[in-house]
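Lecture 7, part 2: worked example. A protein chain together with zinc ion.
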Amino acid sequence: MEAAGASNIKVTDSVIEYSGFTFLLLDALDSLSVEKVQFNNAVIIDGKDPDFIRHIVRRIRSNNSPDIYLKPIFILKGININDPFVNRLCDGTIFSLEQIEFIIPTVEKILTKVNDLKFTNSISFEAQMIEKTINFMYTCDVFDLDPVPYVYSGINYSYPILSVNFRQTEEYSVLDILDIAEREGIFESEYYDRVYLCSNCSNGHLTYREVCPKCGSSHSSTEDIVHHFPCGYVGPITDFKNEIDDQLDCPKCDKRLRHIGVDYDKPSILHECKNCSHKFQDYNVKAKCLNCLTDNGVEVLKGREIRRYRLTKKGELAAINGFVSTSKDIDEIIGTVKFDTFKTMLKYEIERLRQTEGSSNICAIHITNPSQVYSKIGSEVQKGLLKDLVRVIRSNIRSSDVITFQSSSTIVLSMNEIPMRIAKRILEEIIVMLKRLMNTAFKNMEVNFETNVMSLDYKLSPELHIQQLTKEFK
Ligand SMILES: [Zn+2]
Ligand SMILES: [Zn+2]
Ligand SMILES: [Zn+2]
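Predicted complex, written out as structure tokens:
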């Protein structure tokens, strides 16, 4: 046990207990593991080293577990923190541990609001990012998501709580995610600024140069063009210079030039490329990307709007009730159809059965522990996992059968024109293969499945079929 600053504040194993709450105290000597955050109510970061603060704040806020990324963070201030990014991701500052009592109301408020939230485990990475962002905003009572000019951002503007999840080179994705969120009615927005991004890698760190229109070199010299009125001679100013004084003499008529505007004029300028000696009047402008070194013509740069966002009522409710994914990236999983398309196809199959004799089925495969599974693996891996699931299912059914996602944890598929007992057997085989796949891909993780099969009944609607098929799932 050691005393930290104040006699009545005791720090035990980096944890301070105060007023029924536990605060995890992190300083530069701590390991950068943020695991311990989940077992405490709030975090206090010792603020001596700005790099350390930025690093640890990023680690906490970019974590995918709500037990970690939603925790209140306070800076125990040794120095001034001017980083706008860090400032937006922290909940306050104290100057000594004595002041811990002043942050108790904030901690209480945030933790109470965290308790309001329901968490869904969307399969869509975009949806997952949207959910994280709105959850954080809700718990902090922040309704505006404003762009912050930030030199460390790959697109020159940061939306801290969303951008924190991305590496600098991937930060342009933030704009796509915000577009999706707005289309879903989570945010409304207004224009703020425009950025231009590299046509090759979407980075915004560009250096603009005037270059030779012939060879693209930025190495050139520029001189004035002089027009001598009395004789009409036009040429670069060097033609008029002599080696003795700084006066100008006309090379054609030998007269000394007197006053600009009276006997001569400088109507334009001339550039000369130092690389290819090309002489020209108009430069091309190019933007070299400092990330991938592509020298972009400015006309091919990707212009993107930077907008200010505001959480809508719908967005607030989505935070509380859990944000249910758009169909967006379910489409991206090869071998599946949209849920709506599936229902339409089901309707036709039911119609067909009304007129012909035969037996067709729909089946569902449900992951019973999705939150456990999805919280342990990254979002990219998640997508990969779902793709693998689809691939295994696909290889066991006929190409005329279709697969769809009802949710991130429930897959529905058709098995037409086979008896139910065969459908059941195929489904069992699929599950065996899926389990084998999971065991090889994820050693320490158990993925549990539930399944159901149902014969199509022409007296029931497609909706009722799906309802009955999935109603037993947890
Ligand atoms: Zn040139
Ligand atoms: Zn002249
Ligand atoms: Zn680039």
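The pocket of zinc ion (ligand 3) is lined by residues 198, 200-201, 203, 289, 291-292, 294 (CB under 6 Å). The chain has a mean pLDDT of 88. Keep this in mind for problem set question 3.
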